[in-house]
Amino acid sequence: MLAMTESTGFLDGIVRGTPVVQRRAMAKAITLLESTRPDHRQQADALLTRLLPHTGGAFRLGISGVPGVGKSTFIEALGLYLIGQGHRVAVLAVDPSSSVSGGSILGDKTRMEHLSVHEKAYIRPSPSSGTLGGVAEKTREAMLVCEAAGYDVVIVETVGVGQSETAVHGMTDMFCLLQLPNAGDDLQAIKKGVMELADLVVINKADIDPDAATRARAQITSSLRLLGLHGNPDHVHHDQKVWHPQVIQISALHGQGVDTFWSAVSEFKRLQTANGRLAARRQHQASAWMWERIDAGLKQRFREHPRVREALDLFTRQVQAGELAASTAARQLLERFD
Amino acid sequence: MLAMTESTGFLDGIVRGTPVVQRRAMAKAITLLESTRPDHRQQADALLTRLLPHTGGAFRLGISGVPGVGKSTFIEALGLYLIGQGHRVAVLAVDPSSSVSGGSILGDKTRMEHLSVHEKAYIRPSPSSGTLGGVAEKTREAMLVCEAAGYDVVIVETVGVGQSETAVHGMTDMFCLLQLPNAGDDLQAIKKGVMELADLVVINKADIDPDAATRARAQITSSLRLLGLHGNPDHVHHDQKVWHPQVIQISALHGQGVDTFWSAVSEFKRLQTANGRLAARRQHQASAWMWERIDAGLKQRFREHPRVREALDLFTRQVQAGELAASTAARQLLERFD
């Protein structure tokens, strides 16, 4: 079977190859996983299944922030710091706008000029599959390839287009939000729902306005408390310590605070491993991911069904115009889908 | 056709009946809408379609808050105040726990003893359909019945079980969150994601601890600003005024602040009508509602499909155990669904 042979070849190269062979096998594997050709998809699934036993060993770190917050500078500084500590670092990206705009992040590797050429780093720009669900799925699969290749820190970056923070939060162990010191000002927009995804808020460029950074830190800390993190219904015994979201200040450009950042990440990892939340988060992510893809597939089939297609536009207009009840429209469209 | 005759009879009673006839027709209609019998469902859809031209005239107000915050007292005070201003007030509830527990809210009308017996008020407990989606759908349909009957303020109450705040937010023009004065303390849990749904936060029982209430107000105001409401991607021209979430203090038990509350609601309504957001919100809600019901229907069919059913448990376990990639499992299950 060609598919099996191919995927076995990839697998050996990825898991056991010399640096050069490994890098080539990773690129080939990720290209296969990103392909939309049905026969490739079968090979890709065979490869994924064989890769899985070799995955899960990395710490998966999500990093988000608006353009200009200094993500590339921070990730470069962090990556080099981690390599200095003996880690191997992969950097992936989720950018649903890339198919339209040609990519707003990581399209240009020169933005991380030292990290991108380092042999212990692997940087891959965002796939350009159009929909967020598609882009996120490809990135999630690329993450597994990196883990199988022995990268023990995988950073997934996003600029926060649409719901991309939620997607990155849903595939990482820890989600970090980069902020500018003027976070409390009207100048800086934070999208609804993003702050509360954060396990760690990082105020970058703190050196530019230390007073503002300190005020922002106090304000965000207080808001995070108020945001109901204590009401989080996760199941942890009362005698177990849990992580509470924190706010730290750094200045990535001057290399300040990267060690503080990594201490916080390590403490997060230690606590959430001990109380079982890290494992529970991954398990939950895996089922949620499966259902997300099932939902997307079901909805696509539904939209493409001939009898649904011929009525969907009219029904949608009637529902929006208040001429047809939403629940009635849903029932009648579902009857057409058989 | 029996269905048409029946629904026409209901319709006349609801829209034009004397108070007694109307109340009886409303109760019958809502019971029909809540029925799960397939033949009833057809009649219900026919009724809904005929009701629709008579709906949409009410202001739809969502009110949420944890048990003990004083929702019933507040809604009773508000309802009587509004009736005094010439309004007719309907109170509905979304309580997904009601099918299990027998209902934790509005099961006992005596909790609003004056409002519940007032001829200008209509109070209906939460339907008990089991799933949140089902409960919310029935409540949304009951709201249409109330509007067709000329109730011009519809209050939808929830205690916030599961995602019920999101459901209520998705069917109302304005979402208000009741809080106790100690909102900033660890004592009071706010669920993740709820604060940012709020158009208005109401600190009730402010008289008990005025200092705490003032502190809470300042803190919540600051958090709401930080929460990124300025980053809300809604489409409004820059020269148009938009509503920014506010925080007010009241003491419902002593009847204090109900007028302040209603002023805020009226200002919200005025602004959001002028800038078009109210209409846009309803239109968005209608499509979102249709798709929510389609998704629920598709997922139910998927789960009940014989070839999916025989594999779903095994695949789910394998995905959670990390033996099968989530995306692979999704694709293979979708192949079984035909």
Automatic annotation (TrEMBL), chains A, B:
<comment type="similarity">
    <text>Belongs to the SIMIBI class G3E GTPase family. ArgK/MeaB subfamily.</text>
</comment>
<dbReference type="GO" id="GO:0005737">
    <property type="term" value="C:cytoplasm"/>
</dbReference>
<dbReference type="InterPro" id="IPR027417">
    <property type="entry name" value="P-loop_NTPase"/>
</dbReference>
<keyword id="KW-0378">Hydrolase</keyword>
<dbReference type="GO" id="GO:0003924">
    <property type="term" value="F:GTPase activity"/>
</dbReference>
<protein>
    <submittedName>
        <fullName>Putative GTPase</fullName>
        <ecNumber>3.6.-.-</ecNumber>
    </submittedName>
</protein>
<dbReference type="Pfam" id="PF03308">
    <property type="entry name" value="MeaB"/>
</dbReference>
<dbReference type="InterPro" id="IPR005129">
    <property type="entry name" value="GTPase_ArgK"/>
</dbReference>
<dbReference type="GO" id="GO:0005525">
    <property type="term" value="F:GTP binding"/>
</dbReference>
